[in-house]
Automatic annotation (TrEMBL), chain A:
It comes from Culter alburnus (Topmouth culter). It comes from the Eukaryota. This is SERTA domain-containing protein. InterPro entries: E2F-SERTA_domain_protein, SERTA_dom. GO terms for cellular component: nucleus. PANTHER family: CELL DIVISION CYCLE ASSOCIATED PROTEIN 4/SERTA DOMAIN-CONTAINING PROTEIN 2, SERTA DOMAIN-CONTAINING PROTEIN.
TrEMBL record, chain B:
PP2A consists of a common heterodimeric core enzyme, composed of a 36 kDa catalytic subunit (subunit C) and a 65 kDa constant regulatory subunit (PR65 or subunit A), that associates with a variety of regulatory subunits. GO terms for molecular function: protein phosphatase regulator activity. The keyword Cell division does not apply. Belongs to the phosphatase 2A regulatory subunit B family. It comes from Culter alburnus. Keywords: Repeat, WD repeat. This is Serine/threonine-protein phosphatase 2A 55 kDa regulatory subunit B.
Length: 284, 446
């Protein structure tokens, strides 16, 4: 007992960074309240609360209730909404994407959005006119500045589909100030939701492409590459390897649409300079 | 329900497998635990794609109060990591489920699956080998025929036991989404595999075709709101299976009704209690495991906070509800934040269906006696416990109190969780996996 009974396999599996080891998954309940007051903008605090090493020391709370439960309902809802968006965004970056998790998060998000939208409809006439809470200092005091979304960390515009960044930068009533006054009333058009979930759920399929490259002889891939295009009008089609789906799909599509010999020849018949070729490829 | 008052349970720690230090490699984390149909073999799968099978030793006469121990029988690499080139994603080699086939001959067969591929493994013993060849030396070198002067008949001689595991079938390329369940049919010829959106029916002998029997993928993925989380065949009726969903409902389907069982025969769903509604109601209602009773009369479902026993004849509500760790209801926001709310716990029945068991956090596991309507909270730990010594039961209280065998909910360690459990089909032996180790507990016999 206690000794390893089986020979340990020295399995050299490369693990992608980003999976938090289970020993880091501790209840750091205080961070929920702390985070809201300290860093309204960045996701640094959120990440640290989740991935904080808590080895060896168990934190004891003075209260038995979840501090988040003590917040008034709109703040609770806001907290959950923030967490939801953050998790959905990080879903895309995880090494083990889970459709089950994403669906649950999306449903929670949708539920909160609907609730907020219903509430937003009832008080919509008031919202653009100024702060509804007396002691909030809002950006509308400075009408030249666009409203700054409270929880729009930069990565939102990156990995996740554009509509999620849209949800936090468009049509928001944001009130900066004390933590108690933070509300967010995103009002999305319906199509933003659908586009976002489509691109979110569309990326979960396992394709049968594990043998994709093994079926091809590597030489076949490269035999089309022909350096003669750089010094003569003889054009050949450059194959492009599969790329990450986020962000590059548009580029790939437009490349493939003009990737026929004739159009390239027409464009490049007078060009024998690599820089010119790259310029055209990038702009197309 | 209150725990029993004397603080002692009938259970005692039998064995612990695995390293006992805190640093465990990701690949060693156990992800599947399953006894075979006789209970003689216990299989575990890990995140590294390996399967380790333990075998129960013959009953030893000098320890009548304990069942025999389990020792390593076979270890093999079941699945390898793969790479999906089109999506630029790793396909994990982690073993999601292991299911044994009923034994038909001397060899043992099991199905193991990762996210994408199911494999049928044959585990066979070899304890004899032929010796005395005419044309081969004992070391394998060939003899020249002209050097032979006499002939002899090769005979089988005993050798050291060798256990071989060989892949007999590979069932691949049938699932677009991650496989979460496999279940062998009572006809011993077919089995089902379920991913997030589809369930396929296979014949064990054929790897090049499978039948899709459930498909809940919407035409527009943007309309997707529900996924399949668990599925199992009925233990006696080969035409019946169930699948649980992320919305907390379980559907029972009859394959005789139609080829595609999108229309359920029964829908088991408990109406939501409006007084407990929260942002997390749907998430905590998601079914993480569904298991038929051995009798086939009942079905058990596990969601985040409860175990529910359903009578298959009554769809409107469960006949029994057991609170696994109700004290977490006030902590849901934190558990959502640290992702623990998405943990998928398994559950299992005792051989005679009189008790059920499931895991919890802090390396606790919960036993529910259905007949006596009593429950117990036990801890899987190798500290302060010796084999044969009965486990003490725990109580979880509010706040951060810590007394003898009582722990406050704020002191619970949520990184130590028991997700995978299995109960011996005949005896009272349970196997469960903590993050680091495999624990085997036995009921005291006397």
């Amino acid at each position: 007992m206690g000794q390893r009974d089986i020979t340990a396999f020295e399995a050299s599996m490369k693990r992608k960074n980003g999976i938090p080891s289970v020993s880091m998954c501790r209840l750091e309940v205080e961070s929920a309240a702390v985070k809201k007051e300290v860093e309204p903008g960045g996701d640094g605090a959120l990440s640290s609360s989740r991935y904080m090493l808590g080895r060896g020391v168990k934190r004891k709370l003075s209260t038995c209730e979840d501090p988040a439960q003590d917040l008034p309902y709109p703040q609770q809802r806001q907290l959950v909404l923030d967490l939801c968006l953050d998790k959905l965004q990080s879903c895309q970056r995880r090494a083990e994407p889970s459709l089950h998790r994403s669906v649950l998060l999306a449903n929670t998000l949708r539920q909160i959005q609907q609730e907020m939208r219903q509430e937003g409809e009832t008080c919509l006439p008031l919202a653009p006119l100024g702060p509804s809470l007396p002691h909030a200092s809002t950006p509308r005091h400075f009408p030249d500045l666009p409203p700054v979304p409270l929880d729009c960390p930069q990565p939102l515009t990156g990995a996740l589909s554009p509509s999620f960044s849209l949800t936090t930068t468009e049509d928001e009533e944001v009130q900066l100030g004390g933590a108690e006054n933070e509300t967010l009333l995103p009002s999305f058009a319906g199509e933003n939701d659908t586009r976002s979930t489509d691109s979110l759920f569309g990326s979960f399929e396992i394709t049968n492409s594990t043998s994709y490259l093994t079926d091809l002889a590597l030489d076949d891939i490269f035999e089309d590459i022909d350096t003669s295009m750089y010094d003569s009008a003889d054009i050949s089609v450059l194959p492009f390897p599969a790329q990450r789906s986020s962000g590059v799909d548009d580029g790939l599509k437009s490349l493939s649409s003009c990737n026929s010999n004739s159009s390239l020849q027409l464009c490049l018949s007078d060009l024998n300079d690599l820089d010119h070729i790259m310029e055209i490829l990038v702009h197309s | 329900m209150d725990g029993d008052g004397d603080g002692q349970s009938r259970w005692c720690l039998s064995q612990v497998k695995g390293a006992v230090d805190d640093d465990v490699a990701e690949a060693d984390i156990i992800s599947a635990v399953e006894f075979n149909h006789s209970g003689e073999l216990l299989a575990t799968g890990d995140r590294g794609g390996r399967i380790v099978i333990f075998q129960q030793e013959q009953e030893s006469k000098n320890l009548p109060q304990c069942h025999a121990e389990y020792n390593v029988y076979s270890t093999f690499q079941s699945h390898e990591p793969e790479f999906d080139y089109l999506k630029s994603l790793e396909i994990e080699e982690k073993i999601n489920k292991i299911r044994w086939l009923p034994q038909k001959n001397a060899a043992h067969f099991l199905l193991s699956t990762n996210d994408k591929t199911i494999k049928l493994w044959k585990i066979s013993e070899r304890d004899k080998r032929p010796e005395g060849y005419n044309l081969k030396e004992e070391d394998g070198r060939y003899r020249h025929p002209s050097s032979l002067t006499t002939l002899r008949v090769p005979v089988f001689q005993p050798m050291d036991l060798m256990v071989e595991a060989s892949p007999r079938r590979v069932y691949a390329n049938a699932h677009t989404y991650h496989i979460n369940s496999i279940s062998v049919n009572s006809d011993n010829e077919t089995y089902l595999s379920a991913d997030d959106l589809r369930i396929n029916l296979w014949h064990l002998d054929f790897t090049d075709r499978s039948f899709n029997i459930v498909d809940i993928k919407p035409a527009n993925m943007e309309e997707l709101t529900e996924v399949i989380t668990a599925s199992e065949f009925h233990p006696l009726q080969c035409n019946t299976f169930v699948y649980g969903s992320s919305k907390g409902s379980v559907r029972l389907c009859d394959m005789r009704a139609s080829a595609l069982c999108d229309q359920h025969s029964k829908l088991f769903e408990e109406p939501e209690d409006p007084s407990t509604r929260s942002f997390f109601s749907e998430i905590i209602s998601s079914i993480s495991d569904v298991k038929f009773s051995h009798s086939g009369r009942y079905m058990m479902t596990r969601d985040y906070l409860t175990l529910k026993i359903w009578d298959l004849h009554m769809e409107s509500r469960p006949v029994e509800i057991y609170q696994v760790h109700g004290y977490l209801r006030s902590k849901l926001c934190s558990l959502y934040e640290n992702d623990c709310i998405f943990d998928k716990f398994e559950c299992c029945w005792r051989g005679d269906d009189s008790e059920v068991m499931t895991g919890s956090y802090n390396n606790f596991f919960r036993m529910f006696d259905r007949d006596a309507q009593r429950d117990a909270t036990l801890e899987a730990t190798w500290e302060n416990g010796s084999p044969g010594c009965p486990l003490k039961t725990w109580r979880v209280s509010a706040g951060s109190r810590r007394k003898r065998n009582e722990i406050g909910v704020d002191c619970l360690d949520f990184s130590r969780k028991i997700l995978y459990t299995s109960w011996h089909p005949q005896d009272n032996i349970v196997a469960l996996a903590t993050v680091n180790n495999l624990y085997i507990f036995q009921e005291k016999l006397n």
